[in-house]
Amino acid sequence: MITPALFDFFRELRANNNRDWFNENRARYEQDVKAPLLRFITEFAGPLQTISPHFTAIPKVGGSLFRIYRDIRFSKDKRPYKEAAGVHFRHAAGKDVHAPGFYLHLAPDEVFAAIGIWGPGSKELLRIRQEIARHPDTWTGITQDPDFLSVFSEGYEHQKLKRAPKGFDPNHPLIEDLKCKHFVASCPLSEKFVCTPDFPVKLAQTYSHGAKYMEHLTHTLDLPW
Fold it and tell me: DSSP of the chain, one letter per residue?
């Protein structure tokens, strides 16, 4: 399924992020990156259902597999290709990466699994913050649970508002959580781990430690779990 060849491809792409090199190595991308990941997504559909039946594993580019092409229209960084593979198992009610979901990031020296919601819309972000503010004990009980923290101990604390969001008490005991722009928790993995034959089952086991977190977010947004 996933093999070290995937990481070898991205290591070389880092040093040769241009269209000429990619076109010369397109067959490697298709064989070592795209095809194995589409097979993995197909195989992961079953284990994913054991966590929740409302999240999708769509084996196509633009489905669960992110495109390798970067959107450089408004960026000063003109590198044409992403130097990592991204897989997102989003909620069936969502249309893009901003839906609640389970994420897998594959890059040389940066492999991790993540859960939550990245860049939610303003209405969704407000609802999550309001839920945390109104029921702090529930939120703390989930995010400080030893089982959760044993796996998902990392987050995106660096991407926060500098001040309390409008309409929220700056002295709220969970003000640091309320400042968050994203509600995501991550778990570092290794290249060796993702290249094991039973990786789909192992990944589902990893995600299952964050099931209560995901259930809480989806219910907060009035989505089925």
Answer: ---HHHHHHHHHHHH--SHHHHHHTHHHIIIIIIHHHHHHHHHHHHHHHTT-TTB----SBTTTBPPSB---TT-S----B-SSEEEEEEBTT--STTSSEEEEEEETTEEEEEEEESS--HHHHHHHHHHHHH-HHHHHHHHT-HHHHTT--EE-TTSB-SSPPTTS-TT-TTHHHHTBS-EEEEEE--HHHHTSTTHHHHHHHHHHTTHHHHHHHHHHTT---
